[in-house]
Structure formats: structure tokens, C-alpha cells
Amino acid sequence: MAVEDEIRAKARELLASGKAEVVVGFVAGTVPLTARPALIKEAADADRLVWNRCCTPGLARYVLDYIRDRRKRRDFDAAKAKKVAVVAKPCDARALVTYIQENQFAPGDLFVVGVHCAPMVDRRKVFEEVGAYRLEEARVDGDAIVITTTDGGEERLPLGDYVDASCAVCARLEPPLADVTYGEAVAPPADADPYARVREHEARGSDERWAWLEEELGRCIRCYACRQVCPACYCEECFAEQRNPAWIGPATAEEDLVAFHLVRVFHTAGRCVECGECERACPMNIQLRVLSEKLVKDVAEKFGYVAGEDAEVSPPLATYKPDDPNEDFM
Amino acid sequence: MADTRNDWEPKILAFLCTWCSYAGADLAGVSRLQYPPNVRVIKVPCSARVKPLYLIRALMEGWDGVLVSGCHPGDCHYIAGNYAARRRFTLLKEFVEYFGLEPGRLNFSWVSASEGGKYADVIKTVVDRVRELGPARRMVKEYAEPEKV
Q: Which of A304, A315, B27, B114 is in the most buried spot, having the most CB atoms within 10 Å?
């Protein structure tokens, strides 16, 4: 059975039996090569769910928001509450693990339909190649993306060339939290280095790094898309919007841009699950993962910790070891 | 600020924990130890009370260097505050330098209540380091003057 059919069957079963009150999953998007997050609440709607190589959006935030909103309802009764089911890629499942670590909900609130990961398509690259307005329809067929253009032609693009940058180097193919798991994992090339861009930036000199940063972050329009999609950014009030005290200005002065990104990314230290949503969401194509990956690398190297692997372990900045690195302290 | 380079003096903002480093600074004072007068002190309950945002904001306001100082590891009044701070600032220092800020703008130290001498040395070291770097340039924001009433 195809993964999509397995997900639909499971969703139907969960909703029909009353085990879950909602299934958070993907339905077909209105634009080619997109999938849209959706809350499915009726068993009859389960067949709207899709699973394909375009299911890039993170679903963990939808789960968190649903559970938070549910708790605020006046008639909510925790003892009678049904589970919230979610279709989870490994990065989604890792984000769910961080939520459990951070006491946002209990593991028992969830039913996780895990999916082994196959790299997702970067639709921007395809749009760029084909021209977004020439694109009538697109589907993934084996190792190729089959494009139907508006003039009726058909083109085949090799899938390998249009894989999302985060997926291309991701070796975490197993959802760390799952009640059932479907699908087959597709491993990245053995020489894929998740920190390649970090190493490149580290190799630059201090002045060069600053110049690169001014150029990249200088394009930021403060739309906050990176924050809105980030599974780690779920504060009810963001420091960037606090106005008393106003830590940073609200506009696009260079220093405010740098401070916003520096502190926002720093807040994800030890919590970033490397889903790459920030970079996909950015309308200005800022290479945000060069920043967040640095902290992922440092946390792994200095504290031997990988985010979202084990809900029983304390997050790295909430714990310590007496023999942690001390060389930065006089 | 930057154009009067000849008579420029570094300005250092220091966050000192009330139990150790602040008392250490006090001891340096009552012992009449000499150290550069370039430092302004903010007393905080613990080094872990200092958010990274405070240090970033200090840099934006044009402080040439920032120092956070707390109790030695193992001596925290709150058992483990300085251990938490150590992890946080180890990451932050590396991260801020990765952004392109000069190494030496952010400084961290452990100074106990009995180490007046060490406090004076730390301040000397930090001031020398920052003097070498020159006035803060990166991250410094031009804030509008508050309107006179």
C-alpha cells in the first residue's frame, strides 16, 4: 500500500473510532508542488490527506497551537480529551519531542503517524527553472519531476537536482517519536556534510563575515516569516515585539536586523531541529540556516547534544556538567 | 564618538553578580587597588540573570566592551546559576564572533568575593583588550536624542 493510502486509512480509523479528535496532516495545495497543512476532523474527510515529496511545511506548530487553543476553551475537560493525531516527518517528530521536553503537552496527548523521510522538492528551484507562470501541473514520478506546462508540453526534471537544501544533507530519517511509522527512508549521499555552509562561513575572516552578514541580513524586511514557521519560536510574546522595554527597534535599521536575527536564532540554541523552514519561508532568500546550523554544530560539539532525540533528556541550556568548557572565562 | 580617536577612552559595561564579583569589586575598592576607571557596573543577582539580549543591547548602545562576571563554578549562591550561565555564554561568545563581531568585545570571568586583586586584573585585561580593538563600530545603533521637555 502506498504511504498516502496508509496515512488515509490510519486517519479514518483514528477519527471513526473516536481515538483522535483531529488529524493534522497535508492536503493538496492550490499551486503545483505545494501541500497545505490541514486539520481533518471527520473520518469522511480522511481521503483528502496527501503524502508526497512536496510536504515541506512543519506540522508541529499546528499541533501545539491546536492543543493550546483547546485548553483555553471553556468546555474543555482534560480527562475526556481525545488525542491529537499528526502526520510527522522526522523533523516534525523532533519538534514534538522538544515540546514534550519543554512541558508544552504530555506524550499521551498525541498520536504520531510517523513517516520515514524522503528528501522534499525545493519548488523555488523548479519555478526558477521552468518559470512559475508556465507551470500548469507537476508531479513526482520516481526519480523525475514531471512538469506539464501551460502550453501543453511536458518536461522531465531530474529530482536529485531539485532537492531542498536542508533535506539534501539530512541524515535523520527515523521519526524519534511515533506510534506507527510508514514508508521507506531514502538516505542522503554518504559525503553530505550538514555543516558545509557553516564551515565555509567560519573560514572567512572577521571583516568578511560581517560584510557577508550585512549583505544577507540587509535584505530582511522584518516580515517575521522565519519566526512564524519556526517550531522553536512559540513564545506568546516575542522579544522583537516587546515595547516596554523595547529591546530592539521595529524597523529595518541594520543593527536592529542583526540583533533580531542574532537573538532569535540564539533562542533556538539546543532546540533547532534543522527542518529548514526558516529558509524556505524567507521571501528574500536570506541564508538563515547558515546562522542556525552554527548553533546546532556548537551544541553538538561542546555539549554532545542533538535536539529532539529523546524526550527524557533535559535540553542543553537547562542543564550543565561541572566539566563543561571553561576557556572563555577569565 | 569615533572621530575623536585620540582622546577616546574605552567604555566597558560590567554585569557583576551580587554575591561574588560585586563583593570582589568592593574589596578592590576598599583595598585601594588601582584599576582603570573605564568600567560602569550593573549589579545582578546572578550571572545567569544576564540574558544574551542585554549584552546585544549594550553593544547596540555603543558600549565598547561588555563583561559578565560571576562566582567560580561550584560556588554559586543559587547552586548552579553560573553553570547555566557558562553554557549560555560559551555559545553566545562563539556565535557573536561568528557573526563578525571582534573577539574581545564580550568578556566573561569568575571573580570571588575575596579576589579584589583578580577583579582589578580582569578590568585591566578587558580595558587593554578593548583599547586595542578601538571604538565599537559594528552593531552600534544611532539612537535619536530624546526630545527636551
A: B27
Q: Would you call A253 and B141 a contact, using CB atoms and an 8 Å cutoff?
A: yes
pLDDT in tens, B32-69: 999 999 999 999 999 999 999 999 999 999 999 999 99
pTM over 0.90: yes
Q: Which of B68, B87, B97, B106 would best serve as a mutation to test chain A binding (most A beta carbons within 10 A)? A: B87
Give A247 to chain B, closest Cα distance, Å: 7
Phi, psi of A221 (to 5 degrees): -105, 10
Q: Strands A180-182 and A110-115: what pairing?
A: parallel
Q: Does B127 touch chain A (CB under 8 A)?
A: no
Sign of the alpha-carbon dihedral angle for A310, A311, A316, A319: negative
**Cβ contact A302–B90 (<8 Å):** yes
> What are B47's three cell numbers?
550571572
Instruction: Please report the ipTM that was assigned to this predicted complex.
Output: 0.90
Rg (alpha carbons) of chain B, rounded to whole number? 16
Stretch 46-105 of chain B: residues touching chain A, C-beta under 8 Å: 52-53, 56-57, 60, 73-74, 80, 83-84, 86-103
Question: Across chain A, what does the average pLDDT equal?
Answer: 92
The CA distance from B92 to B89, in Å, is 5
Architecture of domain B9-133: 3-Layer(aba) Sandwich (3.40)
Question: What's the CATH code of the domain at A142?
Answer: 3.10.450
A52 and A99 co-located in one domain: yes
Cβ proximity of A114 and A173 under 8 Å:
no
* Mutation target vs B (from A215, A257, A302, A320; most B CBs, 10 A cutoff): A320
Compute the count of residue pairs across chains A and B with CB atoms less than 8 Å apart.
Answer: 105
CA distance B95 to B47: 19
Q: A196-203 vs A289-303: helix axis angle to the nearest 10? A: 90
- 3-state DSSP assignment of residue B106: strand
Tell me whether residue A9 is in a domain.
yes
**Count of C-beta atoms within a 10 Å radius of residue A28:** 15
